[in-house]
Amino acid sequence: MSTSGTSARDEILGRIREAVRGAPDVEITRDYRTVTAVDDPVALFAERAAHYRAIVHVLPAADLVAKIAELTAGKTMVVPGERAWTIRELAAADGVVTGCAVAIAETGTIVLDTRQGSRAQTLLPDYHLCVVRAGQIVGGVPQALARLDPALPLTWISGPSATSDIELNRVEGVHGPRTLEVIVVVPSGPGAEGSL
C-alpha cells in the first residue's frame, strides 16, 4: 500500500531499486546487425511489396511520366504540396501520388515522412500511387532508420491498409488506402539494371 505523499509508481520503483541493490553491473552488448546485404534490392523489394498485395511496376526512369499519366488518367489525384486540400476533398479524391523517404527490400516496406505529404493526404484517399527510386531502396530496417529524420512524423506502409476481425477475415481500406500501387524507377539507358 502506498502511504500518503507517495504514488504507486514511486512505491514500485522503490521496491525494484531495493531488489537490485548490490547486484553487479552487467555489460549489455549492443552488437546489433546494422546492414542487411541484398544482392538485388530492387527485385527483393518488388517481390516483398507484391507479397503484401501491392501492385508493383519496375520501369526505367524514361518511362516514369508516361506510366504515371496512364495510371492516373481521368482520376482526381492529390499531389501533396500542390495546394491545400480540405478533409472533405481528400476523402472524395480518387487517390494520392507521392514519393517516399526510403523503402526496405527485406520487408517490402515504404516509409513516408512529412516531406511526402501530411498523414491525412496519404491516408484518406482510397488509392495510393507511390514512386520509389532504386537508390532509395535499402536492405534492412537499420539502414532505413539511418536515413530517416527522427524529428519528422513517419508512416510505414507494407501493402494496402488491412485488418482482420476476430474470425481472421481480411478487410482492406479500413485505416488507409485500399489499393497501393508502386512504381520502382530504375536508371535508364545502357548498363541500367533492375528490371523485372
Description:
The chain is an alpha/beta fold. It has a single domain (36-186), classed as NagB/RpiA/CoA transferase-like (Rossmann fold, 3-Layer(aba) Sandwich). Helix content is 26%, strand content 24%. The protein contains 6 helices and 11 strands. The strands form 3 sheets. A 5-stranded parallel beta sheet has the order 1-11-6-3-2, sandwiched between helices. It has a 4-stranded mixed beta sheet with strand order 7-4-5-8. Strands 9-10 form a two-stranded antiparallel sheet. The termini are far apart. Residues 191-196 have low confidence and may be disordered.
Any idea of the CATH class? Alpha Beta
Helix-residue proportion: 25-40%
- Major β-sheet, in short? 5 strands, parallel
How many helix segments? 6
Q: How many domains, in number, for the residues?
A: 1
Kindly provide the radius of gyration, computed on alpha-carbon positions and rounded to a whole number of angstroms: 22 Å
